[in-house]
Protein backbone atom coordinates (compact mmCIF):
# COMPACT_ATOMS: atom_id res chain seq x y z
CA UNK A 1 0.00 0.00 0.00
CA UNK A 2 1.11 3.48 -0.64
CA UNK A 3 2.03 5.85 2.17
CA UNK A 4 -0.88 8.16 1.33
CA UNK A 5 -3.45 5.40 1.85
CA UNK A 6 -1.90 4.35 5.15
CA UNK A 7 -1.85 7.96 6.37
CA UNK A 8 -5.50 8.41 5.33
CA UNK A 9 -6.51 5.22 7.16
CA UNK A 10 -4.70 6.27 10.35
CA UNK A 11 -6.22 9.77 10.16
CA UNK A 12 -9.66 8.27 9.68
CA UNK A 13 -9.24 5.98 12.67
CA UNK A 14 -8.09 8.91 14.82
CA UNK A 15 -11.07 11.01 13.77
CA UNK A 16 -13.52 8.19 14.53
CA UNK A 17 -11.89 7.66 17.93
CA UNK A 18 -12.10 11.37 18.79
CA UNK A 19 -15.71 11.52 17.61
CA UNK A 20 -16.83 8.63 19.81
CA UNK A 21 -14.79 9.84 22.78
CA UNK A 22 -16.37 13.29 22.66
CA UNK A 23 -19.79 11.76 22.13
CA UNK A 24 -19.37 9.62 25.25
CA UNK A 25 -18.51 12.69 27.34
CA UNK A 26 -21.58 14.56 26.16
CA UNK A 27 -24.06 11.68 26.65
CA UNK A 28 -24.65 12.07 30.42
CA UNK A 29 -25.64 15.73 30.00
CA UNK A 30 -28.03 14.85 27.17
CA UNK A 31 -29.46 12.04 29.25
CA UNK A 32 -30.17 14.44 32.12
CA UNK A 33 -31.91 16.87 29.75
CA UNK A 34 -34.08 14.05 28.42
CA UNK A 35 -34.83 12.84 31.95
CA UNK A 36 -35.97 16.31 33.05
CA UNK A 37 -38.13 16.62 29.95
CA UNK A 38 -39.64 13.18 30.59
CA UNK A 39 -40.44 14.11 34.19
CA UNK A 40 -42.26 17.22 33.01
CA UNK A 41 -44.33 15.14 30.59
CA UNK A 42 -45.22 12.53 33.21
CA UNK A 43 -46.19 15.34 35.56
CA UNK A 44 -48.86 16.29 33.00
CA UNK A 45 -49.93 12.62 32.65
CA UNK A 46 -48.40 12.39 29.21
CA UNK A 47 -47.22 8.79 29.08
CA UNK A 48 -45.73 7.09 26.02
CA UNK A 49 -47.61 4.19 24.47
CA UNK A 50 -45.26 1.44 25.77
CA UNK A 51 -45.92 2.48 29.38
CA UNK A 52 -49.68 2.64 28.85
CA UNK A 53 -49.63 -0.78 27.23
CA UNK A 54 -47.40 -2.26 29.94
CA UNK A 55 -49.89 -1.17 32.62
CA UNK A 56 -53.07 -1.68 30.58
CA UNK A 57 -54.60 -3.97 33.22
CA UNK A 58 -53.67 -1.66 36.10
CA UNK A 59 -55.42 1.33 34.53
CA UNK A 60 -58.23 -0.67 32.94
CA UNK A 61 -57.70 -0.12 29.22
CA UNK A 62 -60.36 -1.63 26.99
CA UNK A 63 -59.46 -3.85 24.04
CA UNK A 64 -60.50 -1.02 21.72
CA UNK A 65 -58.20 1.44 23.52
CA UNK A 66 -55.31 -1.03 23.37
CA UNK A 67 -55.83 -1.46 19.62
CA UNK A 68 -55.88 2.31 19.04
CA UNK A 69 -52.79 2.85 21.19
CA UNK A 70 -50.87 0.11 19.35
CA UNK A 71 -51.86 1.58 15.98
CA UNK A 72 -50.86 5.09 17.09
CA UNK A 73 -47.57 3.77 18.41
CA UNK A 74 -46.66 2.19 15.07
CA UNK A 75 -47.60 5.36 13.19
CA UNK A 76 -45.55 7.51 15.57
CA UNK A 77 -42.50 5.24 15.32
CA UNK A 78 -42.73 5.19 11.54
CA UNK A 79 -43.01 8.97 11.37
CA UNK A 80 -40.13 9.43 13.84
CA UNK A 81 -37.83 7.07 11.92
CA UNK A 82 -38.57 8.87 8.65
CA UNK A 83 -38.05 12.27 10.28
CA UNK A 84 -34.73 11.21 11.82
CA UNK A 85 -33.59 9.83 8.45
CA UNK A 86 -34.52 13.10 6.72
CA UNK A 87 -32.55 15.05 9.34
CA UNK A 88 -29.53 12.77 8.86
CA UNK A 89 -29.63 13.32 5.09
CA UNK A 90 -29.81 17.11 5.56
CA UNK A 91 -26.89 16.96 8.00
CA UNK A 92 -24.86 14.98 5.48
CA UNK A 93 -25.59 17.60 2.82
CA UNK A 94 -24.62 20.37 5.22
CA UNK A 95 -21.38 18.56 6.05
CA UNK A 96 -20.56 18.19 2.36
CA UNK A 97 -21.37 21.85 1.73
CA UNK A 98 -19.10 22.97 4.59
CA UNK A 99 -16.19 21.19 2.91
CA UNK A 100 -16.49 23.34 -0.21
CA UNK A 101 -13.84 25.98 -0.83
CA UNK A 102 -16.21 28.93 -0.71
CA UNK A 103 -19.27 29.20 1.48
CA UNK A 104 -22.35 31.32 1.07
CA UNK A 105 -23.44 32.45 4.54
CA UNK A 106 -27.09 32.67 3.50
CA UNK A 107 -27.15 29.16 2.08
CA UNK A 108 -25.34 27.75 5.12
CA UNK A 109 -27.72 29.55 7.48
CA UNK A 110 -30.82 28.34 5.64
CA UNK A 111 -29.54 24.75 5.72
CA UNK A 112 -28.94 24.94 9.49
CA UNK A 113 -32.33 26.57 10.10
CA UNK A 114 -34.03 23.88 8.03
CA UNK A 115 -32.41 21.14 10.14
CA UNK A 116 -33.46 22.96 13.30
CA UNK A 117 -37.04 23.26 12.05
CA UNK A 118 -37.12 19.56 11.24
CA UNK A 119 -35.97 18.73 14.79
CA UNK A 120 -38.58 21.09 16.25
CA UNK A 121 -41.31 19.57 14.09
CA UNK A 122 -40.39 16.10 15.35
CA UNK A 123 -40.59 17.26 18.96
CA UNK A 124 -43.95 18.96 18.42
CA UNK A 125 -45.21 15.82 16.70
CA UNK A 126 -44.09 13.73 19.70
CA UNK A 127 -45.91 15.99 22.19
CA UNK A 128 -49.05 15.92 20.05
CA UNK A 129 -48.83 12.13 19.97
CA UNK A 130 -48.67 12.02 23.78
CA UNK A 131 -51.63 14.41 24.03
CA UNK A 132 -53.60 12.20 21.62
CA UNK A 133 -52.80 9.17 23.79
CA UNK A 134 -53.98 11.04 26.89
CA UNK A 135 -57.21 12.01 25.10
CA UNK A 136 -57.99 8.30 24.63
CA UNK A 137 -58.13 7.76 28.38
CA UNK A 138 -61.20 8.23 30.54
CA UNK A 139 -61.21 10.42 33.65
CA UNK A 140 -61.17 7.26 35.79
CA UNK A 141 -58.16 5.87 33.92
CA UNK A 142 -56.33 9.17 34.36
CA UNK A 143 -57.02 9.00 38.11
CA UNK A 144 -55.58 5.48 38.18
CA UNK A 145 -52.51 6.71 36.31
CA UNK A 146 -52.16 9.56 38.80
CA UNK A 147 -52.39 7.12 41.71
CA UNK A 148 -49.95 4.75 40.02
CA UNK A 149 -47.54 7.64 39.46
CA UNK A 150 -47.74 8.71 43.13
CA UNK A 151 -47.14 5.12 44.27
CA UNK A 152 -44.10 4.82 42.03
CA UNK A 153 -42.72 8.15 43.20
CA UNK A 154 -43.26 7.05 46.80
CA UNK A 155 -41.40 3.81 46.16
CA UNK A 156 -38.52 5.69 44.60
CA UNK A 157 -38.37 8.12 47.50
CA UNK A 158 -38.33 5.21 49.97
CA UNK A 159 -35.45 3.58 48.11
CA UNK A 160 -33.58 6.87 48.00
CA UNK A 161 -34.09 7.37 51.74
CA UNK A 162 -32.88 3.82 52.45
CA UNK A 163 -29.72 4.44 50.43
CA UNK A 164 -29.12 7.71 52.27
CA UNK A 165 -29.58 5.97 55.65
CA UNK A 166 -27.21 3.20 54.58
CA UNK A 167 -24.56 5.72 53.54
CA UNK A 168 -25.02 7.68 56.75
CA UNK A 169 -24.78 4.49 58.82
CA UNK A 170 -21.63 3.47 56.95
CA UNK A 171 -20.06 6.88 57.65
CA UNK A 172 -20.93 6.64 61.35
CA UNK A 173 -19.54 3.11 61.52
CA UNK A 174 -16.28 4.24 59.96
CA UNK A 175 -16.05 7.21 62.32
CA UNK A 176 -16.56 4.98 65.39
CA UNK A 177 -13.71 2.72 64.41
CA UNK A 178 -10.41 3.49 66.03
CA UNK A 179 -7.94 5.18 63.72
CA UNK A 180 -5.27 2.77 62.51
CA UNK A 181 -2.47 2.35 64.99
CA UNK A 182 0.96 3.29 63.87
CA UNK A 183 3.46 0.51 64.04
CA UNK A 184 6.30 1.00 66.50
CA UNK A 185 9.59 1.90 64.86
CA UNK A 186 11.48 -1.10 63.66
CA UNK A 187 14.38 -1.95 65.95
CA UNK A 188 17.48 -3.57 64.65
Quick take:
The protein has 188 residues and is mostly helical. The chain contains 6 helices and no strands.
Mind explaining what this structure looks like?
This protein is mainly α. It has 2 domains: 1-43; 46-166, Four Helix Bundle (Hemerythrin (Met), subunit A) (Up-down Bundle). It has 6 helices and no strands. α4 runs antiparallel to α5 (105-136). It starts with a helix and ends in a 12-residue tail after the last helix.
Task: Give the number of domains.
Answer: 2
CATH architecture of the largest domain: Up-down Bundle
Helix content: over 70%
Low-confidence stretches: none
* Number of beta-strand segments: 0
Our Rg estimate from Cα atoms comes to: 27 Å
Gap between N and C termini? 67 Å
The average pLDDT score comes to: 80
Outline the secondary-structure elements.
Blueprint: H1 3-43, H2 49-54, H3 56-59, H4 63-98, H5 105-136, H6 139-176
Helix pairs in contact: 4-5
Task: Jot down its keywords.
single chain, 188 residues, mainly alpha, Four Helix Bundle (Hemerythrin (Met), subunit A), 2 domains, 6 helices
Amino acid sequence: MSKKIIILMITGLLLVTVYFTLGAEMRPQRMMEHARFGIMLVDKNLFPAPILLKHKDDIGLTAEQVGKIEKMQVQQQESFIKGQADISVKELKLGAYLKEDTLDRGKMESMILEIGKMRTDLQVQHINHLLDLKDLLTAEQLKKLESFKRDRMGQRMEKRMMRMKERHGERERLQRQDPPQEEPPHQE
